[in-house]
TrEMBL record:
<dbReference type="InterPro" id="IPR013785">
    <property type="entry name" value="Aldolase_TIM"/>
</dbReference>
<dbReference type="InterPro" id="IPR036979">
    <property type="entry name" value="CM_dom_sf"/>
</dbReference>
<dbReference type="InterPro" id="IPR052899">
    <property type="entry name" value="Class-I_DAHP_synthase"/>
</dbReference>
<dbReference type="InterPro" id="IPR002701">
    <property type="entry name" value="CM_II_prokaryot"/>
</dbReference>
<protein>
    <recommendedName>
        <fullName>chorismate mutase</fullName>
        <ecNumber>5.4.99.5</ecNumber>
    </recommendedName>
</protein>
<feature type="domain" description="Chorismate mutase">
    <location>
        <begin position="265"/>
        <end position="355"/>
    </location>
</feature>
<keyword id="KW-0808">Transferase</keyword>
<dbReference type="Pfam" id="PF00793">
    <property type="entry name" value="DAHP_synth_1"/>
</dbReference>
<dbReference type="InterPro" id="IPR006218">
    <property type="entry name" value="DAHP1/KDSA"/>
</dbReference>
<dbReference type="Pfam" id="PF01817">
    <property type="entry name" value="CM_2"/>
</dbReference>
<dbReference type="InterPro" id="IPR036263">
    <property type="entry name" value="Chorismate_II_sf"/>
</dbReference>
Length: 355
C-alpha cells in the first residue's frame, strides 16, 4: 500500500469542516476545563479539543509544557464535555504516554517533521495504531520531507493519516508569522487528494489578525478543516498569547466561514485554487518590491554621501538588457517586462530623490 491508496475512513466520523480547538499549552486543570466549557457553551461545532502537553521552544529555560500531568486534564475534558482529544508528540516517550492516556488524535509538529530520525522514532512507537495521526508541514518549504514523514508512518502500518498546513518560516519580516506558501500545500493536495488537510491559521498568522481570512482561503480550495488555538484568557496564556482567541471569537469565526457544497463544479474549484495561488504570489511580489526599495534607500544614501548623481545611465542599460534576457528565457512579452522594470526603476529614483 502507498499513500495514494490509503482509504482514510476515519475522516467520515466527522462532519465537515473538522474543527480542532483548544489552548496552545495546557497550563492547569481549571484553564483546560473552563476553555472546554466555554467552547461548548458558545455553540461552536468543535468535535476535537487540543492542548500542547510538551512544547518545543526555540531557546532554553522557557516554558516547555506541563508534561504528563496535562494528559490527566485532557482526560477530564473528554469525560466532562465529550470532546475527543488531540496533542502533539515529539518522541517515543510522548507517544507512549499519549497512547496510555487514550488521547484520540496525535500530530507531529513542524520542528519534528524536518528530522527523519525523529519521525522514524515516532513512527515506530506508533506502529499499527488505529488513531488518526496528523503531520504538520516542515518549517522549511520542502514537500519531499513532508511526504517522507507520512511514508515513514505508513511503513509502520499507521494508515489513518492527515496533514496540517501551518505555513513556512522565512527570514523576512512579513504580516505572517509563517508565510502560507499555498503552492506547496496545494501541490500536496493535488498528489494525495485522499489525505485530509487541515489549516492552522494560528501559526500562519502568529496573531489574532487575519485568522478568519486564512481559514476561508483554505476552505475555498477544499481543505477538510482547521486546528486553531483557543484559550479562556488569551492575553494571559503561557505560550503564543498573541495568536490565541477566546471560545466566543472562535464561534464567531466558524459561523462566518463559507463552506463549499459537495456538488460544487470542478471549474469553480479549479478557479478558486488558481486565485489563491495568484493572491499568494501577489503577496510575495509586494514583499520583494518592498525589500528592493529598502535597498534602493541604502544606495541613495551612499550616492548622497559621495555626491554621486542619482540617475546612472549605464546601470539602467544593464537593467534593461537583463530584463530583455529574462523575457526571452521565460517566453514573456519583452514590452511587458520592460514596462515593469521601468516602473520599478522610476520608483527607485523617486525613493532616492526623497533622501
Amino acid at each position: 500500500m502507498d499513500l495514494k491508496n490509503i482509504e482514510n475512513k476515519w475522516v467520515h466520523q466527522f462532519a465537515k469542516p473538522i474543527i480542532i480547538a483548544g489552548p496552545c499549552s495546557a497550563e492547569s486543570e481549571s484553564q483546560m476545563l473552563e476553555t472546554a466549557r466555554r467552547i461548548k457553551e458558545s455553540g461552536a461545532d468543535v468535535p476535537i479539543f487540543r492542548a500542547g502537553i510538551w512544547k518545543p521552544r526555540t531557546k532554553p529555560n522557557g516554558f516547555e509544557g506541563v508534561g504528563v500531568i496535562g494528559l490527566n486534564w485532557l482526560k477530564k475534558v473528554k469525560e466532562e464535555y465529550g470532546f475527543r482529544t488531540a496533542t502533539e508528540v515529539a518522541n517515543a516517550h510522548h507517544v507512549e504516554a499519549a497512547l496510555a492516556a487514550d488521547v484520540d488524535i496525535l500530530w507531529i509538529g513542524a520542528r519534528s517533521t524536518v528530522n527523519p530520525f525523529t519521525v522514524q522514532e515516532i513512527a515506530e512507537a506508533l506502529n499499527g495504531t488505529q488513531k488518526p495521526v496528523f503531520v504538520k508541514n516542515p518549517v522549511n518549504p520542502d514537500l519531499a520531507l513532508w511526504i517522507g514523514a507520512l511514508e515513514r508512518l505508513l511503513s509502520q502500518n499507521v494508515q489513518n493519516l492527515g496533514v496540517i498546513h501551518r505555513g513556512f518560516s522565512t527570514y523576512r519580516k512579513t504580516k505572517y508569522r509563517n508565510i502560507p506558501n499555498w503552492q506547496i500545500a496545494l501541490d500536496f493536495r493535488q498528489e494525495f487528494p485522499n489525505i485530509p488537510m487541515l489549516v492552522d491559521p494560528s501559526h500562519i498568522c502568529g496573531n489574532r489578525t487575519g485568522l478568519a481570512g486564512v481559514a476561508q482561503e483554505a476552505f475555498n480550495v477544499g481543505y477538510e478543516g482547521m486546528i486553531i488555538e483557543t484559550h479562556c484568557n488569551p492575553d494571559e496564556a503561557w505560550s503564543d498569547a498573541s495568536q490565541q482567541i477566546t471560545p466566543e471569537v472562535l464561534a464567531d469565526i466558524i459561523s462566518n466561514l463559507q463552506i463549499r457544497n459537495s456538488d460544487i463544479s470542478a471549474f469553480d474549484d479549479e478557479m478558486d485554487r488558481h486565485r489563491t495561488l495568484i493572491s499568494d504570489l501577489d503577496f510575495q511580489l509586494i514583499e520583494l518590491l518592498s525589500h528592493r526599495m529598502k535597498i534602493s534607500e541604502k544606495i541613495g544614501t551612499l550616492k548622497k554621501d559621495n555626491n554621486i548623481a542619482i540617475f546612472q545611465p549605464e546601470r539602467w542599460k544593464i537593467i534593461s538588457e537583463y530584463a530583455q534576457q529574462k523575457a526571452d528565457e521565460t517566453g514573456m512579452s519583452s514590452e511587458f517586462i520592460e514596462k515593469v522594470f521601468k516602473a520599478i526603476h522610476e520608483e527607485s529614483i523617486e525613493v532616492q530623490n526623497s533622501l
